[in-house]
Amino acid sequence: MTTFVILEGVISLFLIAGGAFAFIGSLGMTHLRDFYMRLHGPTKATTMGIGCTLIASMLYFGVIDSQPVVQEMLITLFLFITAPVSAHLLAKSGLHKKLPHVDKTRGRPPELRSEEIGEKPVPHPAQGHEHLTHENKPLHR
């Protein structure tokens, strides 16, 4: 067996894994019940699927052109940096908008303080309100 046959097998493995991850992530987007559960599909499985596909592309075009492929490396790096950040921002905006939960995901998240859970609006730090913990005691800094 030559190295090209082994390399084709590795590239095929990455492409199949990438397709499987992307399919599972897309399936999660359609079948999961609420906004918070749906965040896991594109941020975890689909990111891995695109990452595997880009690695296969780097291997293939790196061998064809006999030089390192910088574009796919930058795309992969950008993808793995931005996907968790965007998921975090989406989850925080969902909590801020008080989007409905499915019974499985209901609860009182520990990062929410008591004034954020009630009906009254959350005080903004620039308005001079002191920060309170969930027991309504001032935080000591």
From TrEMBL:
Tagged with keyword Protease: no
Region ranges (Disordered): 100-141
Example of a GO MF term: sodium:proton antiporter activity
Residue stretches spanning the membrane: 6-24, 45-63, 69-91
Pfam families, per database record: PhaG_MnhG_YufB
Keyword Disulfide bond: no
Keyword terms, alphabetized: Membrane, Transmembrane, Transmembrane helix
InterPro entries according to UniProt: PhaG_MnhG_YufB
Cross-referenced PANTHER family: ANTIPORTER SUBUNIT MNHG2-RELATED (PTHR34703:SF1)
Protein name: Multicomponent K+:H+ antiporter subunit G
